[in-house]
């Protein structure tokens, strides 16, 4: 039971980290595209 519990908690942490990384990437790419659009307009 302990091994399964540890594995599942590590897996959940991994999933949470993946979601955070995904949102960070989306925010970063969003900022990047906004900057590109601003440069084109100017």
Describe this protein's structure.
Helix content is 95%, strand content 0%. The protein has 42 residues and is mainly alpha-helical. The chain has one domain (1-33). The chain has one helix spanning 2-41.
Helix content: over 70%
Count of extended strands: 0
Count every helix, treating DSSP H or I runs of 4 or more residues as helices. Answer: 1
Low-confidence stretches: none
Instruction: State Rg.
Output: 18 Å
Distance between the termini: 61 Å
Beta-strand content bin: under 5%
What is the ordering of alpha helices and beta strands?
Answer: H
Could you say how many structural domains there are in total? Answer: 1
Structural class: mainly alpha
Note the overall shape: rod-shaped
Query: What is the average of the pLDDT values?
Result: 77
Largest sheet: none
């Amino acid at each position: 039971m302990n091994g399964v519990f540890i594995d599942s908690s590590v897996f959940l942490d991994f999933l949470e980290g993946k979601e955070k990384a995904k949102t960070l990437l989306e925010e970063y790419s969003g900022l990047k595209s906004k900057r590109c659009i601003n440069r084109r307009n100017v």
